[in-house]
Design brief:
- By secondary structure, the protein is α/β, with parallel strands linked by helices.
- It has one domain: Rossmann fold (3-Layer(aba) Sandwich), CATH 3.40.50.300.
- It has a 5-stranded parallel beta sheet, with helices on both faces.
- Strand 4, helix 6 and strand 5 form a beta-alpha-beta unit.
- The two termini are 19 Å apart.
Length: 198
């Protein structure tokens, strides 16, 4: 259920798989366009992280539709050659401004200091994984300030889980290996609170 709700918060088409490609159906997508308009206009570069390959494909479609240029998309299905070419292109080609990355595929070892914005389109709900992704832009050689944007759908369980993470200091010390398993360890009362309509 949590996975389905996460997909709906991203864009209803990700969950419904009905191929209705209407950008206006997602508040997150409208916010993304608002941020990207400013970033692209300023000649800056951005990393967009999602934990879902299918959402990455949707983002690629919507971004290409709006900006008339296809963004890079780094995911598990890319060969090592494709990955290397994308990283080099983003780092060295001024025309490559938008880089979508699957959170799992881009977890370690990437150096993407050309970016001065990081957008977490959907949250992993593990602060260590999120921080590791953000660190792609904070490597040695970074000369610019990096703005980090975390997208959370207002008045949903996403907002409540984020509040819970911020309030529970112990969660901040989780290791990457724990993933999101902690959600399954919540008490019935804590789970009920996540989905209660206020």
């Amino acid at each position: 259920m949590i996975l389905a709700l996460k997909q709906i918060c991203n864009h209803p088409t990700q969950f419904l798989k009905n191929n209705v490609l209407d950008a206006s159906m997602s508040g997150k997508l409208e916010l993304l366009f608002d941020k990207l308009d400013s970033i692209v206009e300023s000649g800056e570069k951005v990393l967009i992280f999602t934990q879902f390959t299918e959402m990455g494909n949707l983002l690629k479609h919507f971004i290409k539709e709006r900006y008339k240029e296809e963004p890079l998309f780094y995911h598990g299905g890319c060969s090592m050659k494709q990955r290397t070419e994308m990283v080099n292109g983003f780092q060295n080609n001024k025309a490559e401004k938008i880089f979508i990355l699957s959170l799992k595929a881009a977890g370690t070892g990437l150096n993407l200091t050309a970016a001065n914005h990081v957008i977490h389109y959907d949250l992993w709900w593990n602060p260590a994984v999120e921080a590791q992704a953000t660190d792609r832009a904070y490597r040695i050689g970074q000369k610019s300030n990096v703005m980090v944007h975390r997208f959370i759908t207002k008045n949903t369980f996403e907002e409540r889980i984020n509040e819970m993470i911020q309030n529970k200091k112990a969660l901040a010390n989780m290791t990457v290996a724990t993933g999101e398993n902690w959600i399954g360890n919540l008490s019935n009362k804590e789970l009920k609170n996540l989905f209660e309509i206020a």
